[in-house]
Amino acid sequence: MSSPVSSRPASLAAAQPVRQGLVSARLLTVIALALLAAVWSFLPDFTVVVLCYIGLYSMVALGLVMLTGVGGMTSFGQAAFVGVGAYATAWVCTSPLAASALGGLLGTQALPWLGLLLGFVITFAVAWVLGSVTVKLQGHYLPLCTIAWGLSLYYLFGNMEFLGGQTGLTGIPAIKIAGLDLSSSRTIGVVIWAVMLQAMWLLHNLLDSREGRAIRSLKGGQIMAESMGVNTARYRIKLFVLAALLATLSGWLYAHMQRFVSPAPFNLNIGIEYLFMAVVGGAGHLWGAVLGAAIITLLKEKLQDILPALLGSNGNFETIVFGLLMVLVLQRFAEGLWPTLQRLTAGLIHRPENKLRAEPRPLDRRVLPAAGTVLLQAEHVIKRFGGLVANNNVSMSLKAGEVHALIGPNGAGKSTFFNMISGVDSPTEGEVQLMGQVMGDAPSRRFAALGLGRTFQHVRLLGQRSVLENVALGAHRRAHKGWIASMLRLDRHEEAALLAEARKQIERCGLGAYADLPAASLALGQQRIVEIARALAGQPAALLLDEPAAGLRHLEKQALADLLRQLRAEGLGILVVEHDMEFVMNLADRITVLEFGCVIATGKPAEIQVNQRVLDAYLGGGDDEEAAA
Ligand SMILES: Nc1ncnc2c1ncn2[C@@H]1O[C@H](COP(=O)(O)OP(=O)(O)OP(=O)(O)O)[C@@H](O)[C@H]1O
């Protein structure tokens, strides 16, 4: 079979993977960390303290990179979660009640660990509740809720007698690990950086997995992600909890480094600063968190020194200058500094792709229904938008082994109907059945689970991710490993299978040469084919294609038609919404015509072509008339 897409995209040159550099990024990281370890004992005390803070802030910023840069959500309340971690351990370690009850039982050395546990439990509960009530509501609710949370917790810390009020709590003991007392910045600093790097490794693994793709898909919009089988609300909540737990871990280490806690470091301003760190560093990049934390910590430090000397008086000038600098940086480097740094060093630093050598494990397979089985059935579907009836008593079916085209002039109600039969919206009246099941208000992911694959009228791909990753997302629900398994790299066999399946579908659609390029670098017509490959990776029984031929050249359309014929022969039921009459007439087995929301004709292409009502109503207008002729 010829390839649906053969021409090179115009923007390909700009989208080539990073050039080969002289040194590998991994080697450079190892050398930098080894150097830091070698000089650690000789660094001045002040430098060590600053590095400890950078490590602690990086941990919080890592959570925000995941939440904001990767998942597309915003939180101003991370400082409050840091406060929970710090105050929980401070209270457990210093309260006579807790210390005598728990310390007597488990020994005083266990108190910091119990403090950590308490911090995690409180954070988990609060973040889960906050997440549950806000993340389902899109837009500003989560940021506003985190501001309210950040403000209220700050005042709570300051007003609780048992937490020391505004004075705070002192006398927090140092952590002891294997008999080693981590009482100096130099010793606890090693733990801070080890924990931060470990967290980064786990998050890196998570992002490089099926679950990571699902997390990234949140940024592609709820409709797309749900259509791939991703439970978006659940992933949002989990991401919010993960970021909050990282902040709590940072707060725990902070309390045992400072040995003292008070409300000031956990106020809303600091919450905003954490967000700055993630965004300035490069919100979509884990190393961006470290870069952002380092730049902002050092910048504030220097401004505090330089400005009073320069201006001859103290007056919090550093806050004003800091704010202005942040605006400038964000205006100049909208994606953050890490991607810019990567671009500038592309000729020097080589970033090798991760090679996955695990043996693929078989993915879930669906037994396709026999040819002629009704896959999808819409019965008397009515959809009203206020007074407007967009679909009026529409009934139609899709059978296994057929191509059914839905056509109609602009505004006829095709997209509205497409939304009804794919779970994006539900009918005002009437019923949709998929695989014999009445769907009611079921979400798109339920449609995907039952065997429905779809593409979008306006292409919905993750433009910065590779074609391979985009297509692998389509196979999401055919595998099962969760977040922990992904973080610990226990998903490699499954991941190898998902990537192999994605590559197979990409090659089948004729895009093999583009698999490793960013999806956004392909021409629009090619991106539509990527969406088909993504739908096929889910091994659907019914395939809904929204204007698949739009933007394709003549030969590419022919190749696409060949692919769809082959899929039909394999037993898939394909519903095509399409404006290109030549494409439809040559391909479809049955055609349903909509006008003003009503079905005006159903039949074989030859019947539709001579149907007077269709000719009057639909083919009466300019371009389409020419196409039909
Ligand atoms: N969410 C909505 N709220 C109100 N009206 C809507 C909504 N969605 C669609 N409509 C209206 O319903 C009618 C049918 O629109 P629809 O997009 O389904 O048509 P279409 O056949 O897909 O058109 P096109 O070929 O241009 O995509 C139009 O009058 C449109 O303005």
UniProtKB/TrEMBL annotation:
<dbReference type="InterPro" id="IPR051120">
    <property type="entry name" value="ABC_AA/LPS_Transport"/>
</dbReference>
<dbReference type="InterPro" id="IPR032823">
    <property type="entry name" value="BCA_ABC_TP_C"/>
</dbReference>
<feature type="domain" description="ABC transporter">
    <location>
        <begin position="376"/>
        <end position="621"/>
    </location>
</feature>
<keyword id="KW-0472">Membrane</keyword>
<feature type="transmembrane region" description="Helical">
    <location>
        <begin position="306"/>
        <end position="330"/>
    </location>
</feature>
<keyword id="KW-0547">Nucleotide-binding</keyword>
<dbReference type="InterPro" id="IPR001851">
    <property type="entry name" value="ABC_transp_permease"/>
</dbReference>
<protein>
    <submittedName>
        <fullName>ATP-binding cassette domain-containing protein</fullName>
    </submittedName>
</protein>
<keyword id="KW-1133">Transmembrane helix</keyword>
<keyword id="KW-0812">Transmembrane</keyword>
<dbReference type="Pfam" id="PF02653">
    <property type="entry name" value="BPD_transp_2"/>
</dbReference>
<dbReference type="GO" id="GO:0005524">
    <property type="term" value="F:ATP binding"/>
</dbReference>
<dbReference type="InterPro" id="IPR027417">
    <property type="entry name" value="P-loop_NTPase"/>
</dbReference>
<dbReference type="Pfam" id="PF12399">
    <property type="entry name" value="BCA_ABC_TP_C"/>
</dbReference>
<feature type="transmembrane region" description="Helical">
    <location>
        <begin position="46"/>
        <end position="67"/>
    </location>
</feature>
<dbReference type="InterPro" id="IPR003439">
    <property type="entry name" value="ABC_transporter-like_ATP-bd"/>
</dbReference>
<keyword id="KW-1003">Cell membrane</keyword>
<feature type="transmembrane region" description="Helical">
    <location>
        <begin position="21"/>
        <end position="40"/>
    </location>
</feature>
<feature type="transmembrane region" description="Helical">
    <location>
        <begin position="79"/>
        <end position="98"/>
    </location>
</feature>
<dbReference type="Pfam" id="PF00005">
    <property type="entry name" value="ABC_tran"/>
</dbReference>
<feature type="transmembrane region" description="Helical">
    <location>
        <begin position="188"/>
        <end position="207"/>
    </location>
</feature>
<dbReference type="InterPro" id="IPR003593">
    <property type="entry name" value="AAA+_ATPase"/>
</dbReference>
<feature type="transmembrane region" description="Helical">
    <location>
        <begin position="237"/>
        <end position="255"/>
    </location>
</feature>
<keyword id="KW-0813">Transport</keyword>
<keyword id="KW-0067">ATP-binding</keyword>
<dbReference type="InterPro" id="IPR043428">
    <property type="entry name" value="LivM-like"/>
</dbReference>
<feature type="transmembrane region" description="Helical">
    <location>
        <begin position="110"/>
        <end position="129"/>
    </location>
</feature>
<feature type="transmembrane region" description="Helical">
    <location>
        <begin position="275"/>
        <end position="299"/>
    </location>
</feature>
